[in-house]
Amino acid sequence: MRLPVELRHVAPRLATGAFILNSGLAKRGADEQTAAMMHGMAKNTYPFLGKVEPGKFVRLLSAGEIALGAALLLPVVPTALAGAGLTAFSAGLLGLYLRTPGMREEGGLRPTQEGTALAKDTWMLGIGIGFVVDGIQRRCQ
What we know:
Keywords: Membrane, Transmembrane, Transmembrane helix. This is DoxX family protein. It comes from Streptomyces olivaceus. This protein is mostly helical and about 140 residues long. About 70% of the residues lie in helices and about 0% in strands. The protein has one domain (about 5-140). Helix 1 packs antiparallel against helix 3, helix 2 (about 30-45) packs across helix 3 and helix 4 (about 80-100) packs antiparallel against helix 6. The radius of gyration is 16 Å and the shape is globular. The protein starts with 6 loop residues before the first helix and ends with a helix. The mean pLDDT is about 95.
């Protein structure tokens, strides 16, 4: 049986999977203040999230990160599928970066000191897109 993971995908899947899984596990025990802060930032960027209670938002975010991190780490999950999840997740994070005041320097894309933590998620978007493109190319051959 051949696994749906190419050798060249192992390092980026391990790096992103471990990073995202750790982030999700760390959010599991978030207190009310942390949940309110995270929810506030998210709902300012994505207003539809205002309908979700902060504690529930953080629990769902934690579960999503754990699931995505595990999908990236488990070699039985096809890379294109894991890449699609990574692309969607990182695009959402970049939306926070682009839409939250104070994250970017005036008139440009360069991050401020506060924005660096979100701007660095561009590497995850690049990896996710690369996985999806590679999966499409594999199917076309």
